[in-house]
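FORM 12-B: Structure-to-Sequence Request
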């Protein structure tokens, strides 16, 4: 694929052929799929489909190669030491559950603890909750600092010799701030704990370097990276693989089986029993090629310009209360200090007198798609003392015009509902 020009990138997404007015601000839920990805999947299904890892004939061998090449591409993309540290699964949720039942539940003892942050999505909370309860272990929750990042001092205070795992999202799906993963790894490894990074919201916005960050587990879903649904990546460092049991058992993962027992293959494919979702794996590979063809530098610049523009506009609306306040002039890019206000990759906010669901319905009438409610992060909303929020999350296809139209529609919605919600008798005064 040749280099892609980001300014005309909307044309690369076929949904805009049929929905030219669509302003899609929900990429944190799922990113739209570029035509080069859907086209590659279509071609695979039409001309190349066979099962992988099972057949000796030409089509099956080619399917095996497609999976192998996708694994290598994904390993390079996230900076893994080698392709045999990456297992394909169906979603980040499945990957996290695999680690909870195949790794954590095998070792967690009464009195030990798992540490998460206050900003976790339910997918990176409920599996740990369950295993901790079963083992009579503690689930400890780290506070966030004023910038919405994990508070490293509190993290250091919570982690002790009984900590088995730190499981935290690199970027919260509500607050959008980027955290310093390598600082977490250092804290975890000092006490012999392992680190799982939920990169669901980071993978499309932060170039990954899992080996140099020293993650033990790193997980993301392809659909947040322009690949469409059905394929996720679970990185498991070599050392953790020796401790991690496969949770899904079946075809393709054994060396020998008899009626009462089985012995298993060595290596990452032991976590991939059953026929893989090759179409989704092909899509992930195509999405990685798409990102590569644009280049991280242009992506980061594009997103930085857009998010600062949007923050500036939102800051000027006095009826909008962002869940985190941002002084754009003081913001900086780059992670590591835990003291700087780095730009977020998405923004959640409340509007005075306006429920997020009402706002989302009004915006929908203007072809604007944004997320409303609790974003699968109820405990964080409770902690922030907000009953619900609206979330704008950006993708490569967004531009300043989208931001302007969104801000105008937001102001109109507020004016409309402010009048409706005004106490009776006040309207004509
Ligand atoms: C931070 C975070 N973690 C985990 C998930 C779960 O991802 P999936 O639904 O693809 O399994 C999401 C989804 O929005 C998320 O935002």
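FORM 12-B RESPONSE
SEQUENCE OUT:
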């Amino acid at each position: 694929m040749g280099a892609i020009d980001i300014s005309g990138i909307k044309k690369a997404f076929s949904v805009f052929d049929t929905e030219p007015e669509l302003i899609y601000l929900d990429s944190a839920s799922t990113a739209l799929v570029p035509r080069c990805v859907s086209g590659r999947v279509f071609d695979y299904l039409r001309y190349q489909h066979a099962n992988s890892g099972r057949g000796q004939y030409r089509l099956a061998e080619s399917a095996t190669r497609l999976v192998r090449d996708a694994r290598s591409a994904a390993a390079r993309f996230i900076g893994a030491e080698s392709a045999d540290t990456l297992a394909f699964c169906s979603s980040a949720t499945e990957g996290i559950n695999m680690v909870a039942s195949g790794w954590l539940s095998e070792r967690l003892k009464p009195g030990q603890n798992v540490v998460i942050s206050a900003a976790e999505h339910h997918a990176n909370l409920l599996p740990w909750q369950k295993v901790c309860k079963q083992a009579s272990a503690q689930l400890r929750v780290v506070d966030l600092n004023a910038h919405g990042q994990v508070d490293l001092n509190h993290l250091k205070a919570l982690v002790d010799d009984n900590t088995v795992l730190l499981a935290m999202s690199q970027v919260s799906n509500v607050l959008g701030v980027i955290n310093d993963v390598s600082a977490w790894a250092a804290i975890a490894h000092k006490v012999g704990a392992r680190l799982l990074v939920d990169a669901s919201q980071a993978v499309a916005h932060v170039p990954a370097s899992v080996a140099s960050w020293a993650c033990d587990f790193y997980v993301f879903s392809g659909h947040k990276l322009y690949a469409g649904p059905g394929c996720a990546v679970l990185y498991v460092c070599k050392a953790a693989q020796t401790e991690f049991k496969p949770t899904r058992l079946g075809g393709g993962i054994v060396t020998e089986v008899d009626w009462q027992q089985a012995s298993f293959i060595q290596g990452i494919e032991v976590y991939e029993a059953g026929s893989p979702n090759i179409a989704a794996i092909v899509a992930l590979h195509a999405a990685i090629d798409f990102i590569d063809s644009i280049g991280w530098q242009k992506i980061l610049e594009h997103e930085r310009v857009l998010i600062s523009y949007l923050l500036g506009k939102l800051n000027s609306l006095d009826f909008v209360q962002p869940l985190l306040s941002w002084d754009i002039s003081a913001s900086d890019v780059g992670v590591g200090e835990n003291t700087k206000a780095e730009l977020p990759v998405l923004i959640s906010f409340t509007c005075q007198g306006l429920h997020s669901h009402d706002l989302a319905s009004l915006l929908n009438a203007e072809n604007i798609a944004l997320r409303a409610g609790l974003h699968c992060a109820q405990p964080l909303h409770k902690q922030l003392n907000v009953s619900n929020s609206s979330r704008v999350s950006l993708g490569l296809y967004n531009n300043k015009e989208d931001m302007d139209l969104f801000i105008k529609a937001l102001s109109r919605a507020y004016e409309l509902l402010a009048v409706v919600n005004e106490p009776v008798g006040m309207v004509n005064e």
